[in-house]
Amino acid sequence: MGAGGGRTEAIMREIASLRAQRDELDGRIRFFEAQLRLRVGGAASHTSKLPPNLSTKLGAMGAHDATAAGGGGLSADMVRRYSRHLLLPDFGVQGQRRLSQSSVLVVGAGGLGSAIALHLASCGVGSLGIADGENVELKNLHGQMTHTEAYIGQPKAKSAAAMCRAINSSVKVFDHNLKLKAKNVLNVVRQYDIVVDATNNLASRYMLSDCCALLNKPLISGSTIGLEGQLTVYNHNGSPCYRCLFPNPTSCQSSSDKSILGVVPGVIGCLQALEVIKIATHVGEPLCGRMLYFDALTSHFKTVNKIHESSLSTCAVCGDNSNFTEDTFMMFDYESFTRASNSSKQPLPSLNRLPRTSGVTSREYKRVLDSGRPHLLLDVRPEHHFQIASIANSVNIPLHELKERLPRLKDALSEVVDVSHGKHRPVYFISQCDDDSQVAVHILRENGFPYASDVIGGLESWAQEVDPDFPIYW
Ligand SMILES: [Zn+2]
Q1: pTM for this one?
Q2: pLDDT tens per residue, range 448-459
Q3: How many Å lie between the centroid of ligand 1 and the Cα of residue 220?
Q4: I want to staple 175 with a disulfide (CB 3.0 to 4.6 A). Which of 11, 102, 157, 307 is the partner?
């Protein structure tokens, strides 16, 4: 891209930044305006309060003091805004008042966190904290409803907070623009009554559960992958913590799969917000000791009693004989703890990695391409990845089909070898990053075809080093 294009991008970024600042200022102005209205409303209700002796007499007759029953804190504005809540017999004024006195921390402002934060802001929690250390990217906008294009490149915590303030300026919204870790999370969590795990990340799931167990805070935990989701409530009303269920991480708990249908975290996030409301208002029966599963393909919900009583007493964190302290917690390396489970689920062939000399860099492959030398570029990603984006003239053979298609492939490869007269490598494999293409080279060599090579760093390197316009979907 030329200098003109760079200047245009800089101007667009500046416009987006200014718009974001304007949105934030608008939100703060609305917040203070609402505070002003609340003060005026509070003063009016105070002047209409019944004299104490009359109120006592009416109380003895079984009548309610209108100020105590309705006001107890709800201004005229609040009554107008939350009238649909107030009309719910089980919820009513008391439920709304409890909600307005609650403070909730949402950790993660992605797909789950967006749905949670928007609902909690609109339903009128007292204080809402949003913690996230990442910035908004274009790929977030398909399912993370709290972010807008104007905030691309800006912190997610600030973006989500601005949207929440815009929806309900009477809620105190705090943005924590940082990645919560064992060293800093205690001080943040201490400030709130209820914590919501919206990180969709195994290390954070263990860390937040341990933190909430230490500080005795309820934790509403949700997670999604692909077209499925699940949620439960930990550490509330005697319910277990995450470690009670999974003392140590296993490979089935974590996944590097980034595929997700945007609406699925929306569904789970809404349900997490519902659990927050139930806990804050003491209305209903929170999902304590039970796990809810959602299958988007069949629209099936299933709730199972996941927990056995025995797991509670033996838990290393919340069990009877636990010696897990805040100091232990702050020294604990959650990334390493959960990484061990990831490493155990690598497919076997990747253990037989080739020496890196067998590959070419993406720039070297570009020179091969430009030279016009006859060769084949075989892309071993899954077909649906190949359909998203691919290098021109590459051929897709998904890795799991390679062995099956080898006999026919070898015929085609022999022709290319003949044309190249053995002067250069006629076959290159490419995948998204590295592992799969190396496995493909290995398979070919094992089957008597030594002329294959792969592109180091795969398409990620290609997009970074050679073709900046290559669509990045990972
Ligand atoms: Zn436990």
Answers
A1: 0.71
A2: 777 788 999 899
A3: 14
A4: 157
